[in-house]
Write a structure and sequence with these properties.
There is one protein chain. Helices cover 43% and strands 14% of the residues. With 279 residues, the protein is α/β, with parallel strands linked by helices. The strands form 4 sheets. The chain has a 4-stranded parallel β-sheet with strand order 2-1-5-6, with helices on both faces. Strands 10-7-11-12 form a 4-stranded parallel β-sheet. Strands 3-4 form a two-stranded antiparallel sheet. It is globular and about 60 Å long. This is Cobalamin-binding protein. It comes from Pseudoalteromonas aurantia. Keywords: Signal.
């Protein structure tokens, strides 16, 4: 009788969790879409934003806006029972309106690479895919630990991460990208910047004298004015032609694919280290 009671309680709890799980999700950031697909919940997404383009199936999801704001009417027409928003990528005024209409809003806040695993677990709980979320989180953590161990040794290099060329911007110590550079065992020359994403000049870069310049490739509709670094051969990175191109979609999104991005970047840093060791 005791076993029957416990088993019945388990079935009731499981039914409650399943019934309470989100069935129609609006995901307001590309990394949210990626992480939902990573736990097998991609088919629950009924709406998303511009640039949510991975995996391929994500391209078929209706768009309701982007970084400039969301179209509330389109969102409501999708009848979501859950909206997952990005703290720094969605307009608060839009989300306040959504909450006032009684729609549940959960915020993604994975500013630390170690929190990606936590977010996978959270998404698993929200969608009734706890087991899938736990598996994806554990796999992410194990792979990240392996990457950190792989690149922990070797001499350090002074690195400039050119986040954006015009106006020229970089990253300081409190950013996600700085964490990724640290995994590669290199020194961010603008780590002590006064803001998270300081705007800098060519003169600042010359003074910092980086051994390597990292150039992320962005998907953007804007016209980008590229920097002709060959004009400044006094910079060691230029004199030694040590430019590293990286995939911004992999490195800048708080998703499981960041491990591909950081591994690629660290591999390229290793080649740069070998170059300087050979001088």
């Amino acid at each position: 009788m005791r076993f029957f009671t416990a088993f019945t309680a388990f079935l009731l709890l499981s039914s409650y969790v399943q019934a309470d799980s989100a069935k129609r999700i609006v995901a307001l950031a590309p990394h949210v879409v990626e992480n939902l697909f990573a736990i097998g919940a991609g088919d629950l997404i009924v709406g998303t934003v511009d640039y949510a383009d991975y995996p391929d199936a994500a391209n078929a999801i209706p768009r309701i806006g982007g970084y400039n704001g969301i179209q509330l009417e389109k969102l409501l027409a999708l009848k979501p029972d859950l909206v997952i928003a990005w703290q720094t990528g969605s307009k608060k005024i839009d989300l306040t309106k959504v909450e006032k209409l009684g729609i549940k809003v959960v915020y993604s806040d994975a500013k630390d690479i170690n929190k990606v695993a936590d977010e996978l677990r959270l998404f698993g709980q929200l969608t009734g895919k706890n087991q899938e979320g736990e598996y994806a989180a554990s796999a992410f953590t194990a792979q990240f630990e392996e990457i950190k161990t792989r690149y922990a040794t070797g001499n350090s290099l002074k690195v400039f991460y050119q986040l954006w060329p015009d106006p020229m911007m970089t990253v300081s110590k409190n950013t996600w990208i700085h964490q990724l550079l640290s995994v590669c065992g290199v020194e961010n020359v603008f780590a002590k910047g006064s803001t998270d994403y300081p705007q800098i000049s060519i003169e600042n870069v010359i003074k910092a004298s980086p051994h390597v310049i990292v150039l992320p490739t962005e998907k953007t509709k804007k016209q980008i004015q590229m920097v002709n670094w060959q004009k400044w051969p006094e910079i060691p990175a230029v004199a030694n032609q040590q430019f590293i191109e990286v995939n911004a979609d992999l490195l800048h999104r708080y998703s499981t694919r960041v491990l591909q991005g950081v591994s690629d970047m660290c591999d390229k840093m290793r080649h740069s280290k070998a170059h300087y060791n050979s001088l």
